[in-house]
Write a structure and sequence with these properties.
By secondary structure, the protein is of the alpha/beta class. It is built from nine helices and seven strands. Helices cover 41% and strands 15% of the residues. The protein has a seven-stranded parallel β-sheet, with helices on both faces. β2, α3 and β3 (91-94) form a beta-alpha-beta unit.
């Protein structure tokens, strides 16, 4: 029981967003509906390649680009995300937007930067999300706030590379971005593409699989 409580304590820090920390922190935003092994893969890849101290999963109450239909409740998604990350002490699962006036990523990142001015932040996203980044509200402002690490995803490599060339003025190698984060020189935002082993898991496929399974059960 005590061990279980300790696993969850890292997700509950009163001063989490009012800190003078200089930690290198990767931010992963999303609905996490549900959290899955692909999110773990992204976090491990970014942490390993960029030398991050922590990765924060920012669970959104409601993604503006997604329908609320079939969206599990925020407490349910938080609980599932914390369960799946239990073995990974460097991953913190939080929901800052639950207490903010906006659930747009631009505003969320601005808030985190303001309340944690010394933290060395990097946004982590899958290649599929980079492809549709221009749909985000104030996406140009967002990419000016912090460097972005893009994790390769099956079937999205070439589209992501093309989108990156259009969106960003500066591309880093993983070694260059790692060095900048170590030296706290993140005043020049840009992006890096982290290639390598790709993970096929997706929340959409998981939900569709569950729906198909329930339908088959109903037919019995």
């Amino acid at each position: 029981m005590a061990r279980s409580a300790a696993r969850y304590n890292r997700h509950h820090h009163a001063q989490l967003f009012h800190s003078r920390t200089k930690l290198k922190i990767g931010l992963v935003g999303g609905s996490f509906n549900p959290a899955h092994a692909g999110h773990i893969h992204m976090s491990l890849q970014a942490c390993s390649k960029l030398g991050l101290d922590q990765v924060w999963w920012l669970v959104s109450p409601q993604n503006p680009l997604k329908s609320p239909t079939n969206m599990a409740s925020l407490p349910h998604r938080l609980a599932k995300a914390r369960d799946i990350t239990a073995p990974y002490s460097f991953i913190h699962v939080v929901a800052p937007e639950a207490s903010l006036p906006s659930n747009f990523t631009y505003e969320t990142v601005k808030y985190i930067k303001k309340t944690m001015p010394l933290a060395r932040l990097t946004w982590i996203m899958g290649a599929d999300n980079l492809v549709q980044l221009q749909q985000w509200q104030r996406y140009k402002g967002f990419i000016s706030l912090l460097p972005i690490a893009v994790i390769d995803r099956p079937s999205y490599s070439y589209q992501a590379m093309s989108a990156g060339r259009q969106l960003f003025k500066r591309r880093y190698t993983t070694a260059q971005l790692r060095h900048r984060l170590r030296e706290s020189r993140v005043d020049l935002p840009g992006w890096c593409f982290i290639a390598g082993q790709r993970h096929h898991a997706s929340a959409t496929a998981i939900r569709q699989g569950r729906a198909a399974s329930h339908a088959s059960t109903d037919d019995i």
